[in-house]
Structures are given as C-alpha cells and as structure tokens.
Design a protein that fits this description.
single chain; mainly alpha; 5 helices; transmembrane helix
Length: 122
C-alpha cells in the first residue's frame, strides 16, 4: 500500500513537471517572438524561463541531455531578460546566462547524474 502511494506521488510530480516545462517553454518562445526587445517580451520570457526551470525540477527525467537542454533554454531566458533590462548590454546578459545555468545545474543536482552516467561511458 505504501509503495502505491509513493508511485502515485511520483507520477503526479512527473506529470506536473512535464506540464510546467511545456507551458514554460511555450510561454518563453511565444513571448520572445511576439514583441522582441521590449519590456513586455522580457517579462513573458522571464516568467516562461522560471516555469521551465520549475518544470525541470519536478520532471525527474532519466535523460541527462534533455535536462541540460531545457536548463540551458531556461537560463537563456534569464539572459534575455537581463539583456533587455540593461539596454542591450551583452556582457551582463552573457554573465547572467552562464551564472544561472551553473546555479540550476548545481541546485538540481545534474552534476551527480553526470557522475553516475560517467561510470557507464567506459
């Protein structure tokens, strides 16, 4: 009985993560395309990037590549937001993108997944 509840919880978190990731990705892409380089676009992209990062955290994906791609897309959204907010300052946008990507990888424990998969490479 306990394993059934745990299984249902895992399924719920996976479905929630998938829904949040899809909605976040769509929001990020649509906001980027609709009104490029505007405050409205930046607000939509940051909301989508945040939702995408939350979705990846709950997704519990077995695919390391998928997780890294989604986290990179999310961090690019944060970088775009900084790019618009700083009047197109590329330096701060690039630094923000790299920093957010590293923080997301660290906090979502992607490094440990890389180390676990590294033993399978050889």
């Amino acid at each position: 009985m306990i394993s059934m509840k745990k299984s249902n919880f895992k399924n719920f978190t996976t479905i929630f993560g998938l829904a949040a990731a899809i909605i976040g990705l769509l929001l990020e892409v649509i906001a980027f395309i609709i009104d490029f380089d505007s405050q409205t676009s930046a607000d939509g992209v940051i909301a989508g990037a945040t939702l995408l990062a939350i979705g990846v955290a709950f997704l519990q994906s077995k695919s390391l590549v998928t997780e890294l791609i989604l986290l990179t897309i999310s961090s690019l959204g944060f970088g775009y937001f900084v790019f618009v907010q700083t009047s197109q300052n590329w330096l701060w946008a690039i630094l923000t993108t790299i920093l957010i990507d590293l923080l997301l990888i660290y906090f979502l424990e992607v490094r440990s997944k890389i180390r676990q998969n590294h033993s399978k490479w050889f």
